[in-house]
Design a protein that fits this description.
single chain; alpha/beta; 12 helices; 13 strands; 17% strand
Length: 353
C-alpha cells in the first residue's frame, strides 16, 4: 500500500496547493487535509476532515486515518478570515502541542514535516551577516509569529527525542512570496507607500511559493540516494535584495521615519487592519536577515527554481503597478543603496539591479 499523508492548514491557499500536488505522487495512496474551517478552494481527490488541531480530536483523526506521514503547515503569521492574533497564536502553539501529542501516541506515524520560519533567528544589529541552522539569536523574539515559531520548534525537538523512530524535518522558510502569498511581509509590501526606518536599508531573502511546495513534497518522502531529509534546514532563494530595491521594483515610494515614528506607524496600520506590523517585523525592516542555505543544497538535496530576485519579481507582477513608475525611482534608490553598502563595508552576493 502507498503512503497516507495528513496535512494541516489546508484552508489556506498554500496548504491547498500542497495537497493537490502531493496526491499526484505515485507512491501516495491517500491524502487527508485537516483544518478548523472548510477550504474555499478544491483539494482534488484528497479527503477533508474539519477538525481544530487545538482540540484533542486531532488524535482521533490521526488514529482513524492511519497516516504514516504528517505535514504540519498550520504554523503561520496571519489570521484566516476574521481570525485574531490570539487565535493564530493558539493554533501555532497549542495546535502544535496537540498534534505532536497525537503523533507521539500513533503507532503508524513514521515521518513528520514542520513548516517553520527564519524568524526564529530574530533581527538584531549585531547578528552575523549570514545565519546558519546552528546560529543562536542574540535575543529571543519577544512576541508575534517569531516567538510562536521558536516555541513550535522547541516542542518539535522534544517530540523528536521521545520518538527517535520518527524522521522529523523542520523547514525554516525565508519570507514566502508569490502571486498568492499570505504573509505579513507581503501585506506590508502591498501598501501604497512603504514606511521604512530612517538610515537603514535591510537585506532581505525570499522563497517562492512554488519552491515551498516542492521542498515540502521532497521532505515528505524517503530521501534520495546521497541525501538526508531529517533535521532542520534553511530554505531561501539565492541572493538578496535591499528594501530600497524592492520599493523601486514595486513602484512604491518609501517614507523614511525615525524608529519611534515607525513604531507609531505600525500601530496605525494594525488599527486600520492593513497588515501585521509587529515589533519583530519592524526589526526585520531595520536590520534585515540573511540565512545560509548550504545544508538545503548539500544535505537535503534541494535547489530552488527561483532566486530571491525572481521570487520577488513574480510577486510584483501579481501586485500591479505602484504609485510611481519603477524607472522614476530606479536611479535615486540604487544610488542610495550603493552608498549604504559601501558605508557598511560589504556588498550582498547575487543581488540583481
Amino acid at each position: 500500500m502507498g503512503k497516507v499523508v495528513l496535512v494541516t492548514g489546508v484552508a489556506r491557499q498554500l496548504g491547498g496547493r500542497f495537497v493537490r500536488r502531493i496526491q499526484r505522487d505515485p507512491d501516495v495512496d491517500r491524502v487527508v487535509g485537516v483544518d478548523a474551517v472548510a477550504p474555499e478552494h478544491h483539494l482534488g481527490g484528497a479527503d477533508f476532515v474539519q477538525a481544530d488541531i487545538r482540540q484533542s480530536a486531532i488524535g482521533r483523526v490521526l488514529a482513524e486515518t492511519g497516516a504514516d506521514t504528517v505535514v504540519h503547515m498550520d504554523v503561520t503569521g496571519t489570521p484566516l478570515g476574521s481570525g485574531s492574533r490570539t487565535s493564530v497564536k493558539e493554533t501555532n502553539v497549542i495546535g502544535t502541542m496537540q498534534l505532536l501529542g497525537a503523533c507521539q501516541k500513533s503507532p503508524t506515524v513514521r515521518r513528520l514535516v514542520v513548516k517553520s520560519s527564519t524568524n526564529v533567528y530574530g533581527s538584531a544589529p549585531r547578528d552575523p551577516a549570514v545565519c546558519t541552522e546552528t546560529t543562536a539569536p542574540k535575543s529571543l523574539p519577544s512576541g508575534g509569529f517569531a516567538k510562536d515559531a521558536v516555541e513550535v520548534e522547541g516542542y518539535v525537538r522534544g517530540f523528536a527525542r521521545r520518538r527517535p523512530d520518527v524522521a522529523v524535518t523542520v523547514l525554516r522558510f525565508a519570507n514566502i512570496l508569490g502571486p498568492g502569498a499570505e504573509t505579513p511581509l507581503a501585506s506590508y509590501l502591498g501598501l501604497p507607500v512603504l514606511p521604512t526606518v530612517f538610515g537603514y536599508d535591510p537585506r532581505l531573502q525570499f522563497v517562492h511559493e512554488d519552491d515551498v511546495i516542492e521542498v515540502l513534497r521532497l521532505s515528505s518522502h524517503e530521501p534520495r540516494r546521497g541525501t538526508l531529509n531529517s533535521g532542520t534546514f534553511n530554505i531561501a532563494g539565492d541572493g538578496v535584495l535591499l528594501l530600497s530595491q524592492c520599493s523601486r521594483r514595486l513602484g512604491r515610494p518609501t517614507v523614511p521615519l525615525l524608529l519611534p515614528a515607525v513604531t507609531w506607524a505600525g500601530s496605525l496600520v494594525r488599527t486600520l487592519g492593513m497588515t501585521d506590523f509587529s515589533p519583530e517585523q519592524i526589526r526585520l525592516l531595520t536590520h534585515g536577515r540573511v540565512v545560509d542555505t548550504t545544508q538545503m543544497r548539500e544535505t537535503l538535496g534541494f535547489r530552488p527554481k527561483y532566486t530571491t530576485a525572481q521570487a520577488f519579481a513574480d510577486f510584483a507582477r501579481g501586485r500591479g503597478a505602484g504609485l510611481l513608475p519603477p524607472e522614476v525611482l530606479a536611479g535615486a534608490v540604487d544610488r542610495i543603496a550603493e552608498l549604504s553598502l559601501r558605508g557598511s563595508g560589504h556588498l550582498p552576493t547575487q543581488s540583481a539591479n
